[in-house]
Specification:
The protein has three domains: 72 residues, Urease, subunit C, domain 1; 90 residues, Diaminopimelate Epimerase, Chain A, domain 1 (Roll); 292 residues, Metal-dependent hydrolases (TIM Barrel, Alpha-Beta Barrel). It is globular. It is built from 19 helices and 22 strands. With 564 residues, the chain is α/β, with parallel strands linked by helices. Strands 1, 2, 3, 4, 5, 20, 21 and 22 form an eight-stranded mixed beta sheet that branches. It has an eight-stranded parallel beta sheet with strand order 6-13-14-15-16-17-18-19.
Length: 564
């Protein structure tokens, strides 16, 4: 029998593939989105030594396997490039699993009830700590105060951190133990002690004022720190994250992270941005090459202002619902420019927290001043340490419209968390008024101006779920499908853009776009799988897709249990 040309070509292709490298694993049995512009979906991907070997048809790639190859059947799941959370707090995510979680509290009355029950069983003499409350949807329509929790906590110091991490509620016992129960003689720099009509503290401490009660917390033991990181990493993997850009990392925690990663206890890629203070030293051991291939530390984190919900975000004009307040400046120019210059000269990336319009404009100003300190010809020189800084503004939530093009012009990356927009819609209009909403959470405008957006979650401030973040980016509605009248639906993004926000663009924001972010031969084999196709299902169904499989460097870090 004579073979057709197509049949002969098929045999030759199969022979060539059999003669090539034998894969360690082949993932098949589902639909694979490569994340490559214009590329069709694929049926299978093979992996060798943690790298992608080939992408294509299942019947062809499975034939390249031998007895030692691991065949991973996706069972109809949809596979995407590995999702990376470009802004989260890994230690805080783990701590949320280990402390009093107030995320689900729905009123001040319920807050007092939950805290009262926890106080009954807390160890004697220990400060009661919790996190996650947010009053913006409470029926009481106000911040809680110490009078709400004093009756259920008594003389036990109690500190309850707001969901945004930029404010806390302390009871009277905690205020007394910290020496701040009387009328404040002054306000801390970059912080605010809220006071009532009587001039006495209400128990609410904003931003830098939170440090006044920090001495009440027990110093975490090494075992506690380890457990927090392990629990945080496990949660991330189970949700579908293959990597996290971990923000505000304690420099002392970097060797802990490296050791846990080397021991195989942290199943994800970690890109650290460490807290930088006035004595920041870019030549310290913190920034040396990691002993774990999954951990990189080459960024610092700074704070310009606070959060919008607790009115710490720095605004040009007063808050619409609090005309005596314009927010808080947590950094000062002279000291901060010195830090920025040291980072710039050492090739250290800067991640700068800014939420308010004045906060963002000020950070842009300071970054521009730093870049201008080096002549353009030096910056353009091949191999220059100043040539590709990829500095970031974390959150970039409230922008003046005229500042939006500056991100692209300056090469500054807006690192944004879509869930903030669908949570903040309950209070942002009241805080800002209608005019300032034009530059609020302006994803579409930033992308149209040429920027990329590194998408994250800000967990534990938010839930930290990639499905919620993807949904928020493409729907710009809350989890029930609602949106405010002035919430600018035109700022939502397409699904292909949303996919990039959590895959390719975080890779770029961490200098790894040649190794991560798409499913292509030669790149690291990081994949995220869901049970539904988030690229095509109705918006609301994105939230019901379940994590099916998470893969880092070809190793399965999470897989949904088979159902009978």
């Amino acid at each position: 029998m004579r073979l057709t040309f197509a049949a002969m070509a098929g045999l030759l292709l199969a022979a060539c593939q059999q003669a090539g490298p034998v894969p360690d694993a082949v993932f098949f049995g589902g639909t694979i989105y490569t994340g490559v512009d214009g590329a069709p979906t694929a049926e299978a991907v093979s992996v060798k030594d943690g790298k992608i070997l080939a992408v294509g048809k299942a019947d062809i790639l499975t034939k390249t396997a031998n007895a030692s190859t691991r065949l991973e059947n996706l069972d109809g799941a949809f596979l995407y490039p590995g999702f990376t959370d470009a802004h989260a707090h890994l230690y805080g995510i783990g701590e949320r699993e280990m402390t009093l979680d107030l995320d689900e509290v729905a009123s001040i009355a319920e807050l007092a009830s939950v805290v009262g029950e926890a106080a009954k069983t807390a160890p004697a003499g220990a400060t009661l700590q919790g996190r996650g409350w947010i009053e913006t949807h409470y029926p009481e329509k106000r911040f809680p105060n110490r009078g709400d929790i004093d009756p259920v906590t008594g003389d036990r110091p109690t500190v309850l951190v707001r969901a945004d991490g930029h404010a806390l509620l302390a009871n009277t016992a905690a205020l007394k133990a910290s020496g701040i129960d009387g009328k404040p003689k002054s306000q801390p720099d970059g912080g605010r002690i809220e006071v009532g009509k009587d001039g006495l503290p209400t128990g609410m401490l904003i931003d830098n004022a939170m440090a006044l009660v920090s001495g009440l917390a027990a110093k975490p033991t090494p075992d506690y720190v380890d457990e927090a990181f392990v629990k945080g990493a496990e949660r991330e993997a189970h949700l579908g994250w293959t990597g996290v850009h971990s923000m505000s990392v304690n420099p002392a925690h970097v060797p802990v992270i490296v050791a846990l990663s080397k021991a195989g206890k942290l199943p994800l890629r970690i890109y650290n941005a460490v807290d930088a203070r006035a004595d920041f030293d870019p030549n310290s051991a913190t920034f040396k090459k990691s002993e774990s291939s999954l951990v990189t530390t080459r960024a610092i984190k700074l704070y310009m202002d606070g959060a919008l919900g607790s009115r710490g975000a720095l605004l040009f004009a007063p808050y619409s619902d609090a005309p005596e307040i314009t927010g808080l400046a947590r950094s000062h120019e002279e000291e901060t420019l010195a830090i920025l210059k040291r980072a710039y000269d050492a090739g250290i990336q800067v991640s700068f927290h800014a939420i308010g319009d004045k906060g963002n404009a000020t950070v842009l100003d300071w970054m521009e001043k730093t870049f201008a300190s080096v002549p353009p010809e030096e910056r353009a020189r091949p191999g220059s340490v100043w040539g590709d800084p990829r500095w970031r503004i974390e959150h970039a939530q409230i922008l003046r419209v005229e500042d939006i093009p500056r991100f692209k012009a300056d090469g500054i990356i807006p690192s944004m968390q879509p869930s903030h927009a669908i949570g903040d819609l309950y209070f942002a209009p009241a805080r800002l008024g209608p005019d300032r909403l034009a530059g609020a959470y302006a994803w579409r405008s930033l992308i149209d101006a040429g920027s990329i957006i590194a998408g994250g979650s800000d967990a534990p401030v938010e839930q930290g779920d990639p499905r919620i973040e993807f949904y928020a980016a493409v729907a710009r509605k809350d989890l029930k499908g609602n949106s405010g009248a002035d919430w600018h639906p035109e700022q939502k993004v397409s699904r292909s853009e949303a996919l990039k926000m959590f895959t390719l663009w975080p890779a770029y924001a961490s200098f790894r776009e040649k190794e991560l972010g798409t499913i292509e031969p030669g790149k690291d084999a990081d994949f995220t799988g869901f049970t539904k196709d988030i690229m095509t299902v109705p918006e609301a169904e994105i939230l019901t897709a379940e994590p099916a499989i998470t893969v880092v460097g070809g190793a399965v870090t999470y897989k949904q249990a088979a159902t009978s």
